[in-house]
Amino acid sequence: MGTIWQDLRYGLRAMRKSPGFTAVAVVALALGVGANTAIFSVVDAVLLRPLPFEQPERLAAIWQTHPFGKKLGYDHLPAAPADFDAWRHSADAFEGMTALAGGNWNVTGGGEPERISGARVSTNMLGLLRAKPALGRDFAPEEETFGKNRVVILSHGFWQRRFGGDARVLGAPLTLDGDSFQIVGVMPKGFSFPRGMGIDPALGLDEDLALWTPLALPPDQAISRGNHFLTAVGRLKPGATFPQALAQLEAVERRLAEKTSSIEGKDWGVTVGSLHEQVVGKSRRAILLLLGAVAFVLLIACANIANLLLARANARHKEIAIRAALGAGRWRIVRQLLTESVMLALLGAALGVLLAMWGVDVLSGMSAGNIPRAGEVGIDARVLCFTLGVSVATGLLFGLAPALASSRPDLNESLKEGSRGGASSPRRQRVRSALVVSEVALALVLLVGAGLLLKSFARLQNVHPGFDYKNVLTMTMFLPDARYQEEAQRARFYEQVLERVKTLPGVESVGGTSQLPLGGSEEIDGLTIEGRPRAETADGIMTAAFRVVSPDYLRVLRIPLLRGRYFSEQDAGEAQGVMIVDETFARRYFPGEDPVGKRVDEQGSLSPKGFMTVVGVVASVRHASLDAEPKPTMYVSSRQSPWHTMVLAVRGKADPSSLAAAVRREVAAVDPDQPVSDVQTFEQVFTRAVAPQRFNSTLLAAFAALAMILAAVGIYGVIAYTVSQRAHEMGVRIALGARTADILRLVVGQAMSLTLAGVGLGLVASLALTRTMRGLLFEVSANDPAVFASVSLLLGAVALAASVVPARRATKVDPVIALRYE
Fold it and tell me: Pairing with 106, which of 175, 338, 435, 518 sits 20 to 30 Å away (CA)?
C-alpha cells in the first residue's frame, strides 16, 4: 500500500508538471467517456433494466397472426375478444391473463372540458402486474360485467392536475363522454404502461395514461372473432416457458378455427413473447448502433492518449533509465506508468460524468416519443458503476502499450550526455503509426454510417407526402354517444363548426377528417366490388384504408383531383352513397379501367351505405408514414357517414398557430362541453413523423464529427512529433539543397500514407458493418458508393489539413541550429 500511495503522489506531481498534456488528455477522455455514459444510460433504461413490475421476466405479450396481415406489413395483430376469452380459460401455462384496450374520453364538469387518454382493462390487471392503488381500492371482478363498469382508477399525475391531489376524491363522480363514473382509486406515482405495447400508435398504450376503467364488452362484441383490438398480457406460472405457452395457445386457435365457418375466422395464428422485448420493439437496433458509435469514439480517444503517452515517454526516457539503473524492476516501472494512466482516465471520467448529465437531458428531449421508457433515462448508481469500469479499463488500455514500450530502456544510450534516447526507435514509431491508422479507420466507419443515415434522412424529407401541409392548423374533436348518438346530430355539429371557422379572419379554408395523414396508422377495411365474386379465403379479401372527410377536406390539403369530381354539398345523408378513391386504389383494383362510376361496398362498420359509387380519383397520400408506400384508400363524405372523431384542418393565410384560440372559441360556441385536443400545426405533425430518423442521424453525425476531429488531432500530433524528432534530418536535407516543396512532400506524404492505410482498413470494416443498418435506411443502399467515396475524400482532406501545419514548420528548420551539436 505504501508503494501504491507513492505511485499516486508521483502521478499527481507528474500531471502538475505537464498541465498542457494533462488538459488535452482529460478533455479527450471526457468527451469519449461522457458520450459513452450518456448512451449507456439509454441502453440501461431501455434494454437492460427490467420492466417496473414484480417478476417482469414472467410477463408475456400475446398477439394473433394472419397471413394477410403479414402482407399488409403487420407481423402481429391485436386479439379478438372471443380468442382472448378462450385463451385465458384454456391455457394453464399462465397464472393469469389480462386484456387492455386504449381509450380516449372527454372529461366535463368541475373545470375546463378536456380530452384524456386512458385504458379499458380486465379487472385482474393490477393483480397480474402485482400493483396496488395508493389510495382506494382495485377493481372488483363483477365490475367487468357490461353495465356495471362505471368506475375508474386515476393515475397519480391526472389526480394531481385535475383534483389538486385531494384525497377526498374517492367516491366522487367523474363525467366521461357524458356518462358518470365513480372514482374508486388512485395509482402511486410512477406507475405507467410503457410505450410499445401496441403495433401502432392507434393501438398502443401511452405512458401518460390518465385513468383506467374496467373492460366490459357488450354480449355481441364479447363473442366476436372479427374485431381485433385487445392487447393481451399474461403471467407465466413458475417453471412454465414461452414455448409451452405458445403450444397451448396454438391448440386453442386450432379448436376455434374448427368451430368457425366464416372466412374471417380462418387462418389465425398466435405468438407469445417477452413483454420487455415487445416494449423495446424496433428501437433495439438503433440504440445498439449508437452504443457502438460512442465505443468507437472512445477507442479513438484512447489511441490519441496512447500516442501522447508514447511521445511523453520519449521525453521521460532519461528519468525511466535512472529508475531502472537504481534498481526499479520492469513491473515496478509499468505499474507507475499505468497508475498515471488510470489517474488521467479517472479525471477524464469525472469531467465526462458532468458532460453526460447535460447529454442525458438533451437525449431525453430528443428521444421523447422515439424511444420507449425514455422517461426512465438518467444517471444512477448502475450508470456510474459502468462509467467507473469503463474509465479504469480505458486507462489500462491506452496506458499499457506506452508503459511496456518504456519499461525496457537502453541504459547506455539513455544515460549518455545529450542523448536523444528512444526518440528514433523504429518499434515505437510503428506503434504510433498503427495507432493513427486505427483512428482513421474507426473514424471512417462512423462517418460512413452517419453519411448513410443523413442521406437516408434527406431522401425521406424530400418525399412528397401527396398533400400540402404548409400553413395548416389541426385539432381533434370527439363526439360522445351520450350527446351525439344519432348521425344527424354529429353531421349538424360538424357543419356548424366548419361554417363558423370558415368565416374567421385569416382562414383561407377548413375541412375535417377522421384521421390525419402521417399519423403512424391506418384504418384498414375489407371491400367488395359490384359484379365481382367475394373472396373465398381470408387471404384473398380485398382491403383498403378508410377515411371519413368533409366535402372541402381534399381541397384544403390540396390533394390533386385526377379524374371525376370532389365531394359536393349535394352528397348529403339521404343521397346515394358516394366515395372517392386514390390512384393506388385505382391501379390495384381497376387496372386499365376508369373507376369513376364503379360501385364499391366497404365491408367494415364505418359506413352503413352499402354499395357506393366512385365519383372521383385523387392522388395517393402517404397516410401511415413517409417511408411506407401508400395503400389503396377510400374517402367517404362526413355528410353521409359522420364519424365520432373529426380532426379539423384549418388552412390559414399566414401563421396558422395564431388561429388556435379563435377556433377553440367557435367550437365552444357550438357546444361549451366539447373539448379540442392535439392542437398543432401540420408542420409539427410532419416533424414528428420523421423524428426517429432525425434522432438517429443527428446523434450518429455528432459522434462521427467528434471522431473525425479526434482523428485529425491524432494525425497532427504524430506528424508534429515526427517533425520535432527529425529536425536534425530536416536540417541536413535543407543544407544539402532540399527545396520547400521537397520537405512539404516528404512530411505530407507520410501523413497521407497513414491516412490512406486507415481509409483502406476503414472501407473494408464499413462494408461489413453497414449491413446491420439496412433496416434504418430509406431508399439508400448500405454500400452506397457515393457515400463511401465522399466520406473517404472528406477524411483525406481533413488529414491533409492536419498535416500542413507541422509540414510548414519543417520547412522553416534552420540548418545551422539543427546541426550545431552534431
Answer: 518
